[in-house]
Amino acid sequence: MSFELKPLLKKFSRVIPDGIYLKSLYKRIFGKKLSLSNPRTFNEKLQWLKIHDRKPIYATMVDKYEAKEYAKNIIGEEYIIPTLGVWDQFEDIDFDKLPDQFVLKCTHDSGGLVICRDKEKLDLASEQNKIERCFQKNYYWDGREWPYKYVKPRIIAEKYMEDACFDNKEPNEYQFWCFNGVPIFISVIFQPHGENLKASYDLNWNRLDFITSNPEYRNEVKKPDHFEEMKAAAFKLCKDHIFVRVDFMVFNSRFYFGELTKTPGSGFLRWQPTEKDLDLGNQLDITK
Question: What is the tens place of the pLDDT at every residue in 86-115?
Fold first, then answer.
């Protein structure tokens, strides 16, 4: 997530302590004070966790390369999208050895993504410029998401996956929101025609009446095949974590590990309805 800061705050942002920085940013986004001494809402508790819950393993969990090995050791290799290569810089990539279709990702952020459906049509100069811009940025500074501070910028290539059941060949994404080691609800990201729509379901696949910032997908979403297997994998990946969001992608009725997110939206989520922020905050126990 990228944030617009006041010029003075932006100029000195790297010398401002995390707590002061987050309070200023929270006030700018929501127009109200952030309580770090007595956090009550879900967003407030995520801000508190940014400062007080810092374990080295979190840097592994958010690294798009290291997270795959982390997840493989917990749920098994069959749920991991194959990696085709990993490089320290764009110039090291030997595109002749890559297949006609593949995906490039930066390991240290959420914006460095290249989807190649036809290698002959790939604009290498443009994609290199995109990747190198991402390399110049440390994702930590915008929202003070501590795990990203120490992630080494690299590029990985993954096998291109597509799902024939969608008009735009893009898969659905299933996000398990896990509180105190237990998934409590799922956000379904539905992309029927290039849109980015969202619906919420409980663990029994009953529709819920809230979403985060994305526009709502108002039709019913079919429960994916192997949903119980997916749910079991989420339980394994979230065990012993105060909060983590476990994301899976589904391709032709098979699911694969997507990523682990410690602070969705960097803790600046606009819940609809807004009271859901407090309701979810009441369900997240940070006292442990």
Answer: 999 999 999 999 999 999 999 998 767 889
Residues 6 or more apart whose CB falls under 8 angstroms from that of 10 comprise none
Tell me the whole-structure pTM to 2 decimals: 0.90
CA–CA–CA angle 103, 134, 130 (5° rounding): 60
The listed CATH number (3.30.70, 3.30.460, 1.10.3300, 3.30.470) that belongs to domain 35-79+162-288: 3.30.470
User: CB of 95 within 8 A of CB of 116?
Assistant: no
CA distance 203 to 234: 11
pLDDT digits (tens, 9 = 90+) for 230-268: 999 999 999 999 999 999 998 877 899 999 999 999 999
Residues of the chain with CATH 3.30.470: 35-79+162-288
255, 248 contact by CB (below 8 A): yes
